[in-house]
Design goal:
By secondary structure, the chain is mainly α. It has twelve helices and no strands. The chain has two domains: 140 residues, no CATH class; 59 residues, no CATH class. The radius of gyration is 21 Å and the shape is globular.
C-alpha cells in the first residue's frame, strides 16, 4: 500500500497538473469539470468492484486526475463573474466545500460507529454523491471566455492588491495563476486583437508568452509570493501527514479489530 499504491496518486497529480491547467483554459472549463466528475465516478466504481494492486493503482491514478482537474472548478467560477465579485464568490465556494467535507466526515463516522454501516455501503453513498454532482455539472452554462485562448478585449475595473490576495485564497497556488490570469486577460484589448489576427501556431506561442508574463506579474508581488509559498508548503505538509497517519493508524489499530475514528478526525481537522 505504502510503496506501490499511494505514490501513484502523488506522481499522477504532479504530472497532470500543468497540462490540465492549459487544457482547462483551451476547453473553457466546463469539459474539464465533466472530466473531473467522470474521474470521481471511475474511482469509486473501482473501489467498490475491483480488487488487486493494479486496480488500486488505477484508483490512485483516476483520483490524481480528479484532484488535478479541480483547478477547473474554481477557474470556471472566475470566468462567469466580474472581478468585483471575486471575493464574495471565493468565500462562498470555499465555505461550502469545507462545510460539505466536515458534514460528510461526521456523517460517515456516525454511520460507522452507531449504525454499523459497512465500508462498501459508505463507498456506495459516495458514488451516488459524485454521480449527482456530475449530473448537476451537465447543466452549467458554457463560458464564452477564458484567460488565454478565448480572451475578450473588454476592460473592467481591476481589484487592488489586497483583493487579489483575498481572491487567490480559494484553493492554493493554482488560483494565484487563475486570478492573476483573469485580471491580465481583461486589460487593454491590444494583445487580444493581435492574437486574433495571428496564425493558429503564432496564437499558441502567444498564449505561452502571455502565460509566462502573467506568472512573472503574479510572483513579482511579495504578498502573492509569500502567500503562495506558505500555501504550497502547508498543503504539501498536510498531505504528507494525512497519507502517513492513515498507514500508521491501521498499523497501530487495525480497522478489522479496533474502533475507527478517521471520520471524526477528518471532521475536526476540516472544521
Amino acid at each position: 500500500v505504502t510503496n506501490q499504491i499511494f505514490p501513484v496518486w502523488t506522481y499522477s497529480y504532479l504530472a497532470l497538473l500543468f497540462p490540465v491547467f492549459l487544457i482547462t483554459d483551451y476547453m473553457r472549463y466546463k469539459p474539464i469539470l465533466l472530466l473531473q466528475g467522470i474521474s470521481f465516478i471511475i474511482t469509486w466504481l473501482l473501489l467498490l468492484f475491483a480488487q488487486g494492486v493494479l486496480a488500486m493503482q488505477m484508483v490512485e491514478f483516476f483520483y490524481g486526475m480528479a484532484t488535478a482537474t479541480e483547478v477547473a472548478y474554481y477557474a470556471y467560477i472566475y470566468s462567469v463573474i466580474s472581478t468585483d465579485h471575486y471575493q464574495r464568490v471565493t468565500s462562498y465556494c470555499r465555505s461550502i466545500t469545507l462545510v460539505a467535507a466536515t458534514v460528510a466526515a461526521v456523517l460517515g463516522q456516525l454511520l460507522v460507529s452507531l449504525a454499523d454501516v459497512s465500508y462498501f455501503h459508505l463507498n456506495a453513498i459516495t458514488l451516488a454523491s459524485v454521480s449527482l454532482a456530475f449530473v448537476c455539472s451537465l447543466f452549467l452554462p458554457m463560458p464564452q471566455k477564458s484567460m488565454f485562448f478565448h480572451r475578450k478585449g473588454v476592460s473592467q475595473t481591476l481589484p487592488g492588491p489586497d483583493k487579489a490576495v483575498a481572491a487567490v485564497g480559494a484553493d492554493g497556488p493554482s488560483n494565484c495563476r487563475e486570478d492573476e490570469g483573469s485580471v491580465s486577460a481583461e486589460r487593454a484589448p491590444t494583445p487580444t486583437q493581435q492574437a486574433d489576427d495571428a496564425k493558429p501556431q503564432n496564437h499558441a506561442f502567444g498564449v505561452l508568452v502571455q502565460l509566462s508574463k502573467d506568472l512573472r506579474d503574479c510572483y513579482s508581488s511579495r504578498k502573492l509570493l509569500y502567500w503562495s509559498l506558505w500555501w504550497a508548503l502547508a498543503t504539501a505538509g498536510f498531505n504528507q501527514v494525512l497519507n502517513y497517519v492513515q498507514v500508521l493508524w491501521d498499523f497501530r489499530a487495525p480497522s478489522h479489530s479496533s474502533a475507527v475514528y478517521n471520520g471524526a478526525v477528518e471532521a475536526i481537522a476540516t472544521f
